Amino acid sequence: MSFLNKLRAGIFRFMQGRHGPDQLALAMLWTSLGLNLLAVLFSAVSWLSTLLSVLGFVLLVLCFYRILSRNDAARGAENRKYLSWVYPMRTRLKQARVRFENRKTYTYFSCPGCKCRMRLPKSVHGVVRVTCKSCGRVFEKKL
Ligand SMILES: [Zn+2]
């Protein structure tokens, strides 16, 4: 068995029963790296640089604590809470990007009943009767 295979097997044995990296741990890791980068950029302001470095280090320690933790249920619950906070924001950002990319092709508007977003081609003009697929409300939209 080569050295790398032994190392891989050793790491595998060490990580058995541990939570391992998840989305929250990776976010903490990247935030920690970003904070340390900011600390380098703001090195002229010593108290700010120190504060950013300490925050980055604390975040890094918490990240590795999460990765190496054997309490999988608690770490999983934390990760689910994080994802329930992040995914709606990520979805809104993706939808906003798509709307921006298609802004010359479609007109976007919301249903007055349920605030569901809808779109019509820019080629449509005049007053259009729209039926919401989500709540079934019928309304007129002037384009
Ligand atoms: Zn609706």
Structural commentary:
- The protein is α+β, with helices and mostly antiparallel strands and 143 residues long.
- The protein has two domains: 3-101, no CATH class; 104-143, no CATH class.
- The protein contains four helices and four strands; from the N terminus they run ααααββββ.
- The strands form two sheets. It has a two-stranded antiparallel ribbon. Strands 3-4 form a two-stranded antiparallel ribbon.
- β1 (106-110) and β2 form a beta hairpin.
- The structure holds zinc ion (ZN).
- The site of zinc ion has 8 residues, from loops.
Structural class: alpha+beta
Mean pLDDT: 95
Identify the overall geometry: elongated
Question: Strand share of the residues?
Answer: 5-15%
Offer a concise description of the structure.
By secondary structure, the chain is α+β, with helices and mostly antiparallel strands. It is built from 4 helices and 4 strands. It is elongated and about 70 Å long.
